[in-house]
């Protein structure tokens, strides 16, 4: 402590580079502070600092973090507490550039495994950034002293010591996450692919704001015929709507809440914070949102089960394009989801290619089969379930064609779901002659795709590697700028960063060993599970969050060979 104080006194007014001498560890009363990396100038990325509070001082009882789910939830809670305390105690801007800023990465509405806060038997460690203050290029040591000796100790004291935190809130956070994980595991025992508890709040504030809509939201009400009850380990008995395996159709008038329901299901692969409204909405963890994505790149994907006989005899068993159409992109998205091992596909008419989803009799009569390369999803959706156990939830308000192939039909009426399966069945026409000659087996067994090592080269110009997320949906990877705009289940920029580093890790460690890319990615994720996110970076950073294998693969699948 005194050492840091005198070191600061010595460099006061010196050129900015003198800050470099601070690198190292310092003992404070309640914690150890380590300056891991010092920024080169006041405008550069801020300095990386970490703090460890030993377990006897932090005092978190073991039962609060003894399982993986509880540990991730408690870390999540503490990250948010640290962030709040920073807002309260850190003055912020002190000089030029990023001078005076202190920042920690925390999540939005989801609870993700991250490396900004780490609990262990030794204690709790936080990683954050500090803009070391300067005026002109001269060190403002007094200001730095304020930050290290007044602000940070208060932040730590208020947010990392169990006795100073609201224990009831911590328990609620941890227990809620545990209930969610329980619920998600319970789904498969019950032959369900999703569950939405009564009184959940599904609508969000806006298309770009993931927080709950608030007082005007109508709480979810379960139709009796789809009602399921379950007893949660912490919250006790609850009731809600179970969506069974098979094909489920969601119908209803425009603006009646169909897409809102589907969006909630997309996010149900993650745990949510208490009061989100979706903390009892869970989905099969392998669920993948499938949409059209025209313009995307497709690298050697066998889309022939859906699309064949392209004009001029183009091969769809190894389909490659820099500029996919709506239907070819949606087909590729399905095949890639199946490679990943998705057991549930989520599809919304709003974001689908019509010609991929349906083709009615009159169009069949007009355009002969040999002139139409697309076998609509309508003709595969039942087979996908019966042969391969892959369920679908499809939002389709504009046509009754899916009545014939749906096991359950839910109608959204002014945000209230009704089971209209019987009515829909009566309206369904007798199964007509199927057009298709199915080649589904090919996709299931032939998943031996992997990118070339060259495509995974992360170097750029004179730099050995350049990997960076520019927002959640843009990943810079070497020379490539990967567009993830339409990867809707990617929720956090920290996941995007981790994906970039994971691609590099996969290329280094598992590309060669596995002819199948997804197997290699899954091995990389297993390494993280056994060790930690830290294996991805040689530096101590706190800016990563865990993605699913699917989103990692999605990024690799969108690398363009021409960029
Ligand atoms: P659809 O897909 O059926 O056309 P949306 O799901 O897009 O309808 O919902 C239409 C609007 O209704 C959206 O603005 C959404 O936020 C709102 N909304 C959806 N569900 C609810 C609800 N339970 N309570 C209040 N508003 C809702
Ligand atoms: Mg809609």
Largest sheet: 6 strands, antiparallel
List low-pLDDT spans: 432-437
Query: Quick check: average pLDDT?
Result: 94
CATH architecture of the largest domain: 3-Layer(aba) Sandwich
Helices, by number, come to 15
Rg, alpha carbons: 26 Å
Domain module tally: 3
Name of the CATH class of the largest domain: Alpha Beta
Beta-strand share of residues: 15-25%
Distance between the amino and carboxyl termini: 50 Å
Helix percent band: 25-40%
Q: Which ligands accompany this protein?
A: adenosine-5'-diphosphate, magnesium ion
* Helix vs. strand class: alpha+beta
Q: Tell me, what's the shape?
A: globular
Number of DSSP E strands: 27
Which fold does the CATH topology of the largest domain refer to? Rossmann fold
Q: Could you please describe the fold and organization of this structure?
A:
It is a single chain. This protein is an alpha+beta fold. 31% of the residues lie in helices and 21% in strands. The protein is built from 15 helices and 27 strands. The strands form eight sheets. Strands 1, 2, 3, 4, 6 and 7 form a six-stranded antiparallel beta sheet that branches. The chain has a six-stranded mixed beta sheet with strand order 18-21-22-15-23-24, sandwiched between helices. The longest helix has 23 residues, at 167-189. The two termini are 50 Å apart. Bound molecules: adenosine-5'-diphosphate and magnesium ion.
